[in-house]
From TrEMBL:
Name listed for the protein in its UniProt record: Protein GrpE
Family under the similarity heading: Belongs to the GrpE family.
Entries under HAMAP family matching the protein: GrpE
One biological process term in Gene Ontology: protein folding
Annotated spans, Disordered: 1-69, 207-229
């Protein structure tokens, strides 16, 4: 190898053979192992690799299958996996709870708004029954009905429906005259009932009567019921 000043080998006196240049590594930290050298090792080491030289690859330590460190690592991996699964389950429950609370808050806001319009809807229904829902008044009524329908408002209570105490408020009851099993049905709806989703804003005010409990597809029972009516 040559240097800026010529060859790295210098001729000896009187034609002696050239002597290679040698280095003494006096570094206190071993560049290969990273360990601190003793003064004897640092001063006595001859022929150490020059700075920038490529270190020789060191053989990897062999790990036995029955090494207790492997069992410890497997235990730590199992614990971390269980922790991640628990955190994922908690986050999923949190998301479901937040969605449920958001939906409940939205329904409560709709109920609060629409409840103030129930008396207006009653006035519109009475005007329609008396034939006064015409002209601009009908146009306004249709727009109000469209708004409340868009908020999820549903009306219930029709003649002939089965009586449900959670939906209907009975103000008059006519018992059945014939013996045997009976069912209670609506005979008249005095005031319409309303609900949003599964929340009842107002029960329907109705009159009810007991009727014989007969199957709808029984022709004889249907003919008998029709003749009695």
């Amino acid at each position: 190898m040559s240097t800026p000043y010529g060859s790295d080998r210098r001729p000896g006196p009187e034609g002696e053979q050239e002597q290679p240049i040698r280095f003494t590594d006096r570094r206190r930290i071993d560049p290969l192992t990273g360990e601190v050298r003793t003064p004897e090792e640092g001063g006595a080491q001859q022929g150490a690799p020059a700075p920038g030289a490529t270190p020789r690859p060191q053989p990897e330590p062999e790990i036995e299958l029955d090494d207790p460190r492997i069992a410890d690592l497997e235990k730590q991996l199992e614990e971390r996996t269980n922790d991640l699964q628990r955190v994922q389950a908690e986050y999923a429950n949190y998301r479901r709870r937040v969605d449920r609370d958001r939906e409940a808050t939205l329904v409560s806001a709709k109920v609060s708004f629409v409840s103030d319009l129930l008396t207006v809807l009653d006035d519109i229904a009475r005007a329609e029954q008396h034939g006064d829902l015409t002209g601009p008044f009908k146009s306004v009524a249709d727009k109000i009905a469209g708004v409340v329908a868009g908020l999820g408002l549903e009306s219930f209570g029709e003649d002939g429906e089965l009586f449900d105490p959670s939906l209907h408020e009975a103000v008059q009851h006519e018992p059945a005259e014939a013996p045997g099993p009976t069912v209670t049905v609506l005979t008249a709806v005095l005031r319409q009932g309303y609900k949003i989703a599964d929340r009842v804003l107002r029960p329907a005010m109705v009159t009810v009567a007991d009727r014989p409990d007969t199957a709808p597809d029984d022709p004889a029972a249907t003919a008998e019921h029709t003749s009695e009516s």
